[in-house]
Amino acid sequence: MVDFTLHDESTAPQESQELLAASKKNFGRIPGLHAVMAEAPGLLEGYQTLHRLFQDSTFDAEELTVVWQSINVEHSCHYCVPAHTAIAKGMGVDDEIIDALRDGTPLHEPRLEALRTFSLAMVRERGDVDDATVQAFLDAGFTQRQVLEVVLGIAQKVMSNYTNHLARTPIDEPNRKYEWNGTVVPS
């Protein structure tokens, strides 16, 4: 196993030092994911930019959580599932939604379930979904813009999930209480 360095502002490449300082300011600490990504400044900057852009999309807190957590669970990301559980709780997302996403059980709100279904189809089919899949998403009340914003969310999650798989990023202390065993009920 390759041991990836968990950087801080003193060990990171110079181009990552300001990025890590921003992470520390935003989170009160340097998340492990950011500490790993700092090795490749472009990756960390790209991730932070995509994170900001996705948060600024037309999706609300519940919808952001559905996209993020559906992808995290699909990719079996040991780090991001607990991290996004904490993020969702901080955004006031209902525990019923959080638990259903973590467990892979149906969401009670049909519109949110349509968002999860579409997000998973996009990941599983690598964006090559049929017209009926897109139309079902639109019929659930979403827009063409949101079709493309799901792509933005997937791009962000690929960066984090793949990095965490490679580095086996340790779960941050505040998120350990949300550790996830990777077991889901098939949907």
> Could you state the oligomeric state of the chains shown?
single chain
Total E-strand runs = 0
Structural class by secondary-structure content: mainly alpha
Low-pLDDT ranges: none
Q: What characterizes the major β-sheet?
A: none
Note the beta-strand portion: under 5%
For this structure, the CATH topology of the domain at 60-178 is AhpD-like
- Tell me, what is the CATH class of the domain at 60-178? Mainly Alpha
Quick one: CATH superfamily of the domain at 60-178? AhpD-like
Query: Average pLDDT, to the nearest integer?
Result: 96
The ordered string of helix (H) and strand (E) elements is HHHHHHHHH
Describe this structure in words.
- The chain has a domain at 60-178: AhpD-like, CATH 1.20.1290.10.
- The longest helix is centred in the last third of the chain and has 24 residues, at 144-167.
- Helix content is 63%, strand content 0%.
- The model has no long low-confidence stretch (mean pLDDT 96).
- The chain is an all-alpha fold.
- It has nine helices and no strands.
